[in-house]
Amino acid sequence: MSERARNLIVGAVSVAALVVIVVGLAGRSGPTVPTPQARAYQLEIRLKCPFCVGESLADSQSGVARDLRVLIERRIAEGATDQEIIDEFVANYGESIVLDPGGKRWGIALWALPVLLGAVGVYAVVRLRRPDETPVDSEVGSR
Amino acid sequence: MIALLGYLGVLLGLVSASTLAYTGVRAVRRGGRVDESVRWSVTGLALGAVVAFAALELGVLTHDFSIAYIARNTATTTPFVFLLASGWAALEGSIVLWGLMLAGFTWVLAGKVRGDDRLGVGALAVMGAVAVFWFGMMASVANPFAICTEVVGGACASSSWLPIGNAVAPLEGLGPNPLLQNHILMAIHPPMLYLGYVGFTVPFAFAISALAQGIQGKAWLVRTHRWSLIAWLFLTAGIILGGWWSYEVLGWGGYWAWDPVENAAFLPWLIGTAFIHSAIVQERRGMLQAWNFVLVIATFALTILGTFLTRSGVIASVHSFSQSLIGPALLAFLVVLLVSSLALFATRIHLVASSPRLDSVVSREGFFLVNNLILTLFAFTVLLGTLYPLIIDALSGREVSIGRPFFDRVTIPLAFALLLAVGVGSIAPWRVAKPQILWQRTRGGIATGLVAAAFAVVVGVSSIPVLGVIALAGFVIGTIVGFFLRQAGARRATGSGGREAAWTVFRNDLGYWGGQISHIGLALLAVAIATSSALAVRGQLQLAVGDSGIVDGYCVRYDGTFQEVTPNRIVDGSTMTLLRDDCSTFVAELAPRVNRYRGASQAIASPAVHTGILEDVYLSIAGGSSETIALDVFIFPLQWLVWVAGGIMILGGFVALGRKVRRRDTLPVTAPDPEESRV
Questions:
Q1: What is the ipTM of this complex?
Q2: pLDDT tens, B318-340?
Q3: Using a CB-CB distance cutoff of 8 angstroms, which residues of chain A are in contact with residue B538?
Q4: Global pTM?
Q5: Among B177, B158, B143, which residue's Cα sits nearest to residue B56?
Q6: Is B625 exposed, middle or buried (0-12, 13-18, 19+ CB in 10 A)?
């Protein structure tokens, strides 16, 4: 089979698959409102279980966590927003109840340092390249 | 008696480790000949470790409660397997097992060091120095043979350091931590992790030996390639088994919580994986000499950090069992290790800094570098997130917590980048990859990825991130399989039969194809993690006996309760029938339980799991009254694939082990690489 024929086949299959993906996704209803359970779960993984060691509310099997999960579900049923529920937890248990640094001031380095290191790394990789663009015989690799 | 015997074993190990460090250095000074004193030191170290371990196990199995460790961590009612595991499951015992493994690795390594071998003898000396620390801990702050001198309320209240004097024994021990006797995997997962941790001591020892003696070149890498791979295999297996244990035992339905101690095992895995890859670049192209030293030192340091985090309780974690002087001792060792290794590295950097440069970033070695960059960044981010609360606390006294939301958010983009690099990097030619060749080798993978995503859309997946993972995984697998078929096809064109051609291609480069099998495992693991977490369904049912409830396509019927009383625990179980959502088509009988251990206050929920082809149904008792039961019902799509994919990664590592048999360290390191012209 010629290169051209192979390219054609790959192109045709890819386009067909893309059409299926786009049509399939477009046919579905847009972003649905999350169910109360899903919302509760998203909150439970963001909140630490008080009096437990290193577990979130979602992960802990302790009685406290169980009660607090029920509390979250009740607050959602009462119409509280996610932020209101988080705020209530912070008011009761202090800031360390939230497992998510989010955009807090003390969390800046947490986001900035990896980005900085990534930039340094990319720079180092590029710098490691041979500076002069001497043509290199690539026979070795082109099998 | 047993305590004294064991302690003498520890002392023998300590003395032998010291003489090994000393005679090893002396042998290096005398030109590298392995003399009798080195051999005797290794034998003494191994013997001491075996005696210490055997004495502890003997004491555990014969219920010698005059030994404080045994009185605190075992009981006569503990079932045999968990009793056996108690010898290493708790704090001091784990150090003994560690010492045994370290001595074992040293013993095997010594068998491979013969004649004039400066590099090898130097490595033995480093192993000896590391062993001095571990056996020193056993002889002091982590002495497992301290004897019980006072019994209050039936428990050992105080103990004396030296195993001499009047020992008193409580009539019964306290028994293991309930979490440690709830599932058989708990007897397997920690030793696997330790073998991985300890295994990385060998490449570290060779690296330090090469650095200290100024031995240039790749000899240390060639000789430790297999060791690194074996350590990686055990570490991978240990992590996956740990996840499986968590899933089967902890009852919250997950297998990874970004707990600090899980991170502590993951960190050396990430950097160790980076090391295995960058070692190949140096072996093939002579690049990254300095970087490889950095990675191997970092891997070893991270194993010690991991032990420190596990054993010191400095960070709140479900894994940290107790506090003692072991924490500060480990921290001191870590600091000494880092300072001395990095100082050594800094004074030798001129020997290793001059390595060849990249011809092009778009090449096999370029993608290896990208892989290293991603893995290092990954590790750095996880380390930062793990230690950040400590740092903030130290700087401002403010208490903060960092958990899953942070780790998920930062690691998902890195994981996507990693998959992409795995796909392209695996098939990119060395030196310079012409766009034409890259396109030829990846176009099949691109089509496979898109078809896989289209298929997922057709079967009902709507989540864009999950579709992204499926497309990338399809790309990786399609590219690798396509590349294999292409080569087999080329060989077949030269006249051999199809199956024979494929086998020849595979067998001729087990290192490469083993790696590719692991890459396929990684791609499948990514899919499994994405589907089992992002597409999970969580429900809760309140059921009275005879009732049934429906959660996402399944009907769960509560049939009744049962109780099992064994000497060490009381099991309160519920019998459930899992049915299709018509509530009449039978699927499975399930029995989630709650286990109450003697002497432990908290009950442990033991979930019941039905594994189907498409998804797991996970039932866990969340509470209840005498009338009703509160049942968590979780559905995890493709959950089984997490374990299978992990197994495939391990299988790939095993295949890659086959590689070195053909070209061992007998190959002169300056000779042209016979494989240079291949793949």
A1: 0.87
A2: 454 455 778 888 889 999 999 99
A3: 37-38, 41
A4: 0.92
A5: B143
A6: exposed
